[in-house]
């Protein structure tokens, strides 16, 4: 595997994760008020269910961040990134 030593490229590539997470959160905030969302999840007047669904995204990130080091140490970092990418794709569908 070719090693990349350009610090700016590495930092720019690393910021993509934060950008994708921000895109995730912002797209969710746009969906919260739509009629399709409120009808499907039957949110209605109760804000507790809506808050729980919104809270699940950062909670999943916390669990993934805590588990990722153990998975990477056991199976390798490449396999861990491949597995998490597959989970990301499945979750976005």
What labels would you give this structure?
single chain, 93 residues, mainly alpha, 4 helices, elongated
Biggest sheet character? none
Order of helices and strands: HHHH
Q: Mean of the pLDDT scores?
A: 81
Q: Which term fits the overall shape? A: elongated
| Percent range of helical residues | over 70%
Q: Calculate Rg over CA atoms.
A: 17 Å
Strand content: under 5%
* End-to-end distance: 31 Å
Give the uncertain stretches in residue-range form: none
- State the domain count: 1
Provide the fold topology:
Blueprint: H1 7-31, H2 35-40, H3 47-75, H4 77-92
Helix pairs in contact: 3-4
Keywords: Membrane, Transmembrane, Transmembrane helix
Transmembrane segments: 7-31, 51-72
Subcellular location: Membrane
What does this structure look like?
It is built from four helices and no strands. It starts with 6 loop residues before the first helix and ends with a helix. The protein is mostly helical. It has one domain. The chain is elongated, with a radius of gyration of 17 Å. The mean pLDDT is 81. The protein has helices at residues 7-31, 35-40, 47-75, 77-92.
Task: Produce a short descriptive summary.
The chain has helices spanning 7-31, 35-40, 47-75, 77-92. With 93 residues, it is an all-alpha fold. The protein starts with 6 loop residues before the first helix and ends with a helix.
């Amino acid at each position: 595997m070719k090693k990349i030593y350009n610090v700016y490229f590495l930092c720019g590539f690393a910021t993509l994760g934060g950008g994708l997470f921000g895109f995730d959160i912002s797209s969710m905030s746009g969906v919260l008020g739509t009629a399709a969302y409120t009808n499907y999840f039957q949110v209605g007047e109760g804000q507790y269910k809506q808050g729980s669904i919104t809270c699940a995204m950062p909670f999943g990130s916390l669990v993934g961040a805590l588990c990722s080091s153990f998975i990477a140490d056991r199976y390798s970092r490449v396999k861990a990134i491949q597995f998490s990418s597959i989970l990301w794709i499945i979750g976005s569908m």
